[in-house]
Amino acid sequence: MDSIINLQKKIVPELTDLLVQRYQILRQVSHEYPIGRRALSARLGLSERVLRAQVDFLKNCGLLHFSSAGMTVTDEGAVILRELSDYVRKLQDISSLEKSLSDALKIGTVVIIPGDSEQEEVVKREIGRASARILSKVLGDGNEHIVAVSGGTTLAAMAANITGSQPKTVIVPARGGLGDNVELQANTIATVLAQKLGASYRQLYVPDGVSEDILNSILQEDVGVRAVVDIIKRADILVHGMGRSSVMARHRRLPPDVITKLEEGGAVGEAFGQYVALDGTQIYMTNNAGLMLQDLQNIGTIIGVAGGKSKAAAILSVIRASRQDILITDEAAAREIVRMGSLLSTTVHNKFIFSYM
To answer: In the chain, pLDDT over 70 holds for what percent of residues?
Structure first.
């Protein structure tokens, strides 16, 4: 197949773009059915004239169904979409990109979803699906597990797509609450995940970022909270997101002097309330009763999930600050990490030398 793909790219490269475009249309419709042409045009950034030609072709092939409510993917279209997924990955050299990052970052498994989750909501959902599939596989050994999960939109997508039965598993939040959006907090995601899996769960009712004195007082006086923290610390599987330092600092409403410290220290990434520079150096840490980066050495399987070109530096910084066993990201972030590696490896005077590539 690889030789055929290489021939196609050299002789009829325009067919590659056309095939990917039709694949993206099927993928988008499969996530948002029923959907009208105008809405689909806006989602994909295509003119309505171009989109009309493509969806009419897919309809005539029996892959799309039109109704007054909008377009849906037919059963045959769903089969084609699954088969196209692997083919498109090969067309876009995703498999080789995964291997390159796996070798360069010293991560056992790297899974890359085509596209940019910051530009296409469907890509974020695909990352969520891939994360759910991988977590289900890790849980499929029949053993008892404690799974810790962080918050965020991508982890919420994972919880929404998880399937299976894991009655021996306990789901816990990796840390306490953050921000005002309850649906995206770790407590909520842990609950949804447990309900989908038929697992049990525990919640951590301690706000993220409280003062050290208040945190110590809670842990001393509240037996229930202390028991939950003990369970969290015994987690053997962790699924977590990675954020940009500047964005997470705003979410946590950090004081101006701390934000200045982050900027002066070169912080670019955040995980578990810990802000790190591109070389993995910790710049600042917020108080919390849950997991911290130093706890990761005791966890059997760590799954990092994040996408988007703007998060490339954040992803790299967190990877360098901690151990990761599986990375699930998107093409835009992966290619930007590779680009950063090429730039930094040739800039000898830069203090953040990218030593992996």
So the answer is: 90
Rounded-to-integer distance, Cα 208 and Cα 288, Å:
5
Output the average pLDDT for the chain: 88
Cα distance between residue 242 and residue 306, in whole Å = 6
Render pLDDT for 114-135 as a digit per residue (tens, 0 to 9).
999 998 889 999 999 999 999 9
Q: What is the pLDDT of residues 7-46, one digit of tens each?
A: 766 777 778 889 989 999 999 999 899 999 999 999 898 9
Q: Is the dihedral of CA 104, 110, 115, 116 positive or negative?
A: negative
Specify burial of residue 30 (Cβ count, 10 A radius: 0-12, 13-18, 19+): middle
Query: Using alpha carbons only, how large is the chain's radius of gyration in Å?
Result: 22
Task: State the DSSP string of 87-122.
Answer: HHHHHTTHHHHHHHHHHHHT-SEEEEESS-TTT-HH
Cα–Cα distance for residue pair 216/314, rounded to 1 Å: 30
pLDDT in tens, 220-260: 778 888 899 999 999 999 999 999 999 999 888 899 999 99
Peptide bond before residue 34 is cis, with ω within 30 degrees of 0: yes
User: Which residues does 61 contact at the CB level (< 8 Å), separation at least 6?
Assistant: none
SS3 330: strand
Q: Name the helix (H) or strand (E) containing 6.
A: helix 2-11
Give the residue carrying structure tokens 């769903």.
Answer: 78
3-state helix, strand, coil in the chain (%, to 5): 55, 15, 30
Pairing of strands 200-201, 169-173: parallel
In angstroms, the CA 247 to CA 180 distance is 15
